[in-house]
């Protein structure tokens, strides 16, 4: 088992590389999820702002026809 972990003398380079890769992947996952949450919140806010404008446009169009 020790031979496996030593990787023929390269274990001191291989295992820290795996650890760094895992940390970087975790950081990217967290950053992506936070960005998604922010983008979804912005989308919902903009969608909410557009709803009254859409209603006003429809009311104006209805008013012009009458």
The level of helicity is over 70%
SS content category: mainly alpha
In terms of per-residue confidence, which ranges show pLDDT below 50 for 5 or more consecutive residues? none
Nearest-angstrom radius of gyration?
Answer: 27 Å
Please give the alpha-carbon distance between the first and last residues: 86 Å
Report the sheet-strand fraction. under 5%
Biggest β-sheet, characterized? none
Overall form: rod-shaped
What are the secondary-structure elements, in order, as H or E? HH
Mean pLDDT: 88
Give the beta-strand count.
0
Number of helices: 2
List the helices and strands and how they pair.
Layout: H1 2-6, H2 11-65
Explain what this protein looks like in three dimensions.
The chain has 66 residues and is an all-alpha fold. The protein has a domain of 42 residues. The protein is built from 2 helices and no strands. The protein starts with a helix and ends with a helix. 0% of the residues are buried. The mean pLDDT is 88.
List keywords for this structure.
mainly alpha, 91% helix
Summary of the model, kept short:
This protein has 66 residues and is mainly α. It has 2 helices and no strands.
């Amino acid at each position: 088992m020790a031979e496996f972990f030593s990787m023929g003398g390269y274990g001191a380079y291989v295992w820290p590389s795996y650890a760094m890769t895992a940390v970087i992947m975790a950081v990217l996952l967290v950053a992506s999820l936070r960005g998604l949450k922010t983008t979804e919140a912005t989308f919902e806010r903009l969608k909410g702002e557009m709803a009254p404008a859409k209603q006003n446009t429809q009311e104006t169009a209805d008013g012009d026809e009458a």
